[in-house]
Amino acid sequence: MRIISGKYKGRRIITPKNLPVRPTTDLSKEALFNILNHQFSFRELKILDLFAGTGNISYEFSSRGAEPITAVDTDFGCVNFIKKTAQQFEMDITAIKSDVYKFLERSKIKYDIIFADPPYNFSQEQFDKIYQLIFENELLEDDGLLIIEHSTQTKMEHLEYFNNSRKYGGSIFSFFEYEQEETDDDDDFDDDDYDNEEE
To answer: What's the whole-model pTM score?
Structure first.
């Protein structure tokens, strides 16, 4: 795993082999952050990383100046690894061991970006519930963004605040945000920006 941009650009992080994870690939991660670069200035964004795994996405946000970051995972080994890595790099990441659904039910904090990377074998209902809990509990800032990573077998476009999706290999990023008034210079998802997209 490598950090692709920001303060720690090029740094490689060696993860234990026994963690039950499927990290977002470097290609997909780079494509995702190319998209986000057009919409956000990362400094001091409040980030929630759900099903955080190795912390791959959290480290990338932190390297670009986002803080604070909350990383949630149910696996004890993953949470300990994130804590250790965050301490090593002096990153403002709080790792929490919790069932993601229970965390979302209890949380009262609003975030600028929420990223969720559930296991690809989750049912459609399990994916939908992530979305429902986030919007029902109003966990996104008004101009915030929810990103859910999923396989091509899972469909997300039926949900109310679905904005767009991008496919990279066998992975899809689906984007959700509250409806905003359109302006002539506001085109967050311009197809010209995605030359690296795989068909």
So the answer is: 0.88
